[in-house]
Amino acid sequence: MNKKVLFLSSVLAFALAWAQRTVQVVAAADLQYALKEVTHAFEARNPGTRVLLSFGSSGKFYTQLTQGLEADLYFSAEKLYPELLEKKGLAEAGTRRSYAIGRMVIWLDRRLGLNPSPEALKNLRITRLAIANPVHAPYGRAAITLLEHYGLLRRRTNAPVPGLKKPFPNLSWEEIPWERLSQGVEAYWDASPLRQGKASFQFVYGENISHTAQLALTATQAGILALSLAVHESLSRPGVYWLAPLESHLTLEQDYVILKGRRRPEVLAFYTFVGSPEARAIFKRYGFLLPGE
């Protein structure tokens, strides 16, 4: 065997070993800070194992995973998507587990001089409101239901949603076909309570809840965000927030799951660590409610 072949063999062996010791995670954007801390704690306890994190929209990741996206673990902001992966045979049986319940806040820039609350969104100074796109982002769906709960959005009787078995206004939050609501919120809900007395008002949509937080911070001065992001200094210093009661919006039960064929020792080690007291303490510090508490 010549030196070139030996070199290539060594490179391939190293690459394979590196891949085996690497855990690839795709996760909902509300975990941007909490899961990074969990990962650092895990890597400190497991030298040589590296966890690679990618954050984005739960719905978009779900679609990509059904199309062959390479990943070991999937953390969703809504249990629906891991359940669907199970049904499609794309997840390891028996590995879907709840890791948290997400909390919602109304966040306002301090410069507005307003106390954050649902009523504050009617203020004439709030002419744009950042929310995650409800078509594919669970936090966007929760934001819409929050506004509806407080009478700031009213369902249109003639909402253009084809194929419904009963009128759109009569659907429960869980029955709404969110993935089909692609024409913007105001095609389906009347936003008159938010528009009243204002020269203009518009929803500004983030691709995921992290992008939505950036829009609130840099463009709109107001947003409906995840508590797990609002508590971070990047948002808590320039803004103030109001924590929404759990019953006021769509429940954000959050599950994670090992993807099919990815049940390696390193993956199982990180999967197990997520449920450890150390990891749970980190999630709790970022405002998540924990299973069993």
For the structure shown, list the relevant keywords.
single chain, 293 residues, alpha/beta, D-Maltodextrin-Binding Protein, domain 2, 2 domains, 3-stranded antiparallel sheet, 11 helices, globular
Secondary-structure blueprint:
Layout: H1 3-20, E1 22-28, H2 34-45, E2 50-56, H3 58-66, E3 73-75, H4 80-87, E4 97-102, E5 104-109, E6 128-132, H5 138-149, E7 154-155, E8 189-190, H6 192-195, E9 202-206, H7 209-220, E10 222-226, H8 227-230, H9 233-236, E11 239-243, E12 252-258, H10 265-273, H11 277-285
Helix pairs in contact: 2-11
Structural summary, described in words:
This protein has 293 residues and is of the alpha/beta class. Helix content is 34%, strand content 20%. The chain has helices spanning 3-20, 34-45, 58-66, 80-87, 138-149, 192-195, 209-220, 227-230, 233-236, 265-273, 277-285, and strands at residues 22-28, 50-56, 73-75, 97-102, 104-109, 128-132, 154-155, 189-190, 202-206, 222-226, 239-243, 252-258. Helix 2 (34-45) links the parallel strand 1 (22-28) and strand 2 (50-56). Residues 5-19 have low confidence and may be disordered. It comes from Thermus antranikianii. Keywords: Metal-binding, Signal. This is Molybdate ABC transporter substrate-binding protein. Belongs to the bacterial solute-binding protein ModA family.
In brief, what are we looking at here?
With 293 residues, the chain is of the alpha/beta class.
- Separation of the first and last Cα atoms: 61 Å
The low-confidence runs, each spanning 5 or more residues with pLDDT under 50, are 5-19
> What's the CATH C level of the largest domain?
Alpha Beta
Helix content: 25-40%
At CATH's second level, what is the architecture of the largest domain? Answer: 3-Layer(aba) Sandwich
CATH topology of the largest domain: D-Maltodextrin-Binding Protein, domain 2
Beta-strand content bin: 15-25%
**What is the count of distinct domains?**
2
Structural class: alpha/beta
Q: What overall geometry do the principal axes of the alpha carbons give?
A: globular
